[in-house]
Amino acid sequence: MKVIEGVVRTYAWGSRTAIASLRGKAVPSPHPEAELWFGAHSAGPACVVGADGEPVGSDLLTVIENDRVGALGAATVEKFSGRLPFLLKVLAAEEPLSLQAHPSAEQAGEGFERENAQGLAFDARDRNYRDPWHKPELVVALTEFDVLAGFRAPSATVELLRRLQVSELDPYLGMIAGQPDSHGLRAVFTTWLTLPEGLIQRVTPAVLSGAVRLLEEGETDFVDELRTLLELGEMYPNDPGVLASLLLNRMRLQPGEGLYLPAGNLHAYLNGTAVEVMANSDNVLRGGLTSKHIDVPELLRILDFTPVDISDLVPAVRTVGAERIYLTPAPEFRLSRVELDGTGLTQPSSISFDMPGPQILAVLSGTVEVRPIGGAPLTIPAGRAAWLTDSDPDAVVRAASSRAVFFRALVPVHE
Q: In this structure, is the dihedral angle defined by the CA atoms of residues 157, 160, 163 and 168, taken in order, positive or negative?
């Protein structure tokens, strides 16, 4: 059982306040801070720290590699090739992330072997598959969190395109109105992503002007969709991903609400702060809203164009005492939110865990004390996490402040 410090990732779309505030650092931060990683990813393994918060000269990846069975448990080692199969993050999006999707396990394995056979370097810019694993992911909002995710019902998209009253959209409106199913969605999306630049430069401004007019006329049904379209159009002029946003569900998660994104789901996180847990993989296929590598044929190969309702992406929740568990089919992770009340008036002041296997408890508010049975307690302030191994004894976690909130990520191999 150890205290770990997350690794900050400074991407351009990040926030200068959210992660810095969580970690008790000066605000604004010198650079946009986009993600705080708690895990054993080779690109940014969490740092092991002492009681004073100073590094002790090791990281979580090294700790695991030195004793895989002791750290992960024999079942996890066997099932996930000796790796910690999940990565837990705090994500702070000040600007939209790229429009993207992730492959299935079968697609990832095949793509990884194919690019190996082609001789592509693992760090090559045009490499799509950097490992043979899939990447399902779950986000739970900490603030209001805006997302584009999954293809909207074609009937609603037809209605939106009709209300825009943009003649440049007529050919594409005809495609989806004439075939209001996954095949029509595929046809329109494929056409938009492969439009010649000159045509994009004519169609996109006309669509943006139509959105402005529709909002000025008092549109009420598609307000968020139109505002997102205009924001993306301003940030990414002449990017086909701007048009593609018209095909996707636009949703706003409230704090505590979750969203599960399986393989093939086209999505983009737009704004807000959330906890994210994902399978420990780097496989991303991008379709726009980015300067990074885009491989349209490969993206089209792995995308699922089946229309999806927002409710289908929201995970079921099971509450056990102070623990709110988000249920997904992902074998790599299980995520839960725990809120404790140090006074014991509104919530329990402590919770006991006896689940075997590796776990990370990331504290996001207040301070918690993790006391293993028969051992000395660890004090974990907001912005840090506890690492519990398979060989650690059962533990009691109690609030060491008036209110404490932490997220618990584990491998559900024993369920």
A: negative
Active-site entry in 250, 286, 324, 337? 286
Look at residue 415 in the predicted model and tell me its pLDDT. Answer: 56
Q: Which two tokens stand for residue 119?
A: 């001789």
Element (H, E) at 89: strand 86-93
CA neighbor of 268 nearest in space, from 22, 110, 21, 96: 96
91: tokens are 């994500």
**Global pTM?**
0.95
CA separation for the pair 278, 87 (Å, rounded)? 6
Q: Of 33-37, 264-268, 387-391, give the lowest mean pLDDT range.
A: 387-391
- Alpha-helical runs (H) found in 304-398: none
Are the C-beta atoms of residues 1 and 51 closer than 8 Å to each other?
no
Q: Are 100 and 270 in contact (CB under 8 A)?
A: no
Residue 135: pLDDT band (50, 70, 90) is very high
Q: What is the pLDDT of residues 255-296, one digit of tens each?
A: 999 999 999 999 999 999 999 999 999 999 999 999 889 999
Contact 51, 379 (CB under 8 A): yes
Q: Is 286 a catalytic residue?
A: yes
Tokens of 392: 């650690």
- Residue 379 CA from chain centroid, whole number: 28
Query: How many Å separate Cα 40 from the centre of its chain?
Result: 17
Tokens 């690019």 belong to residue: 115
Q: Could you say which DSSP state residue 168 is in? A: G
Amino acid letter, 79: K
Pair of tokens at residue 152: 């909207």
Query: Smallest Cα–Cα separation from 72: which of 358, 411, 414?
Result: 358
